[in-house]
Amino acid sequence: MIELSSRTGRKDIGTLIVASVFICLGLITLYDVTTYSDTDSVVFPTFVAYALIFCSVLVIIASWLRPSQSNGFGSGDWWRRLLLVATMLIACLIMPVSGFLPATAIAFAGGLFAARHEGWDTRSAVVFAASGIAIMAGFYALFRFALGVPLP
Fold this sequence. Notes:
By secondary structure, the protein is an all-alpha fold.
């Protein structure tokens, strides 16, 4: 009985921290878009910021109603998490200098290495490289030509 009461009082600390950070990032984004001079450029970041805030609030509510035993941090490899975050940050920082495609290639490669738990062989490397090139080219064409977004 003592174990049950200690389990029910346990909250997902990691989940609450990350959801709170996402709420703060959404609020920062909403503040940042007030400085945009082009009204068309405000729509997408505003929508994403509201969606981020709304989903983060839902995660916090769900975490308080039904806490998990994993405490929100899980048991995965930390180097994979750090690699994913680091490559995303690097891609964001170098995009104005290098352009869209090189920065996207860095983000794709880092995310792929972080997510791939199996070993690497020649066939899987070629398949992933080809699919990455196709995805990056598709997003470039979508943003540049279909949506008319100016890319660095």
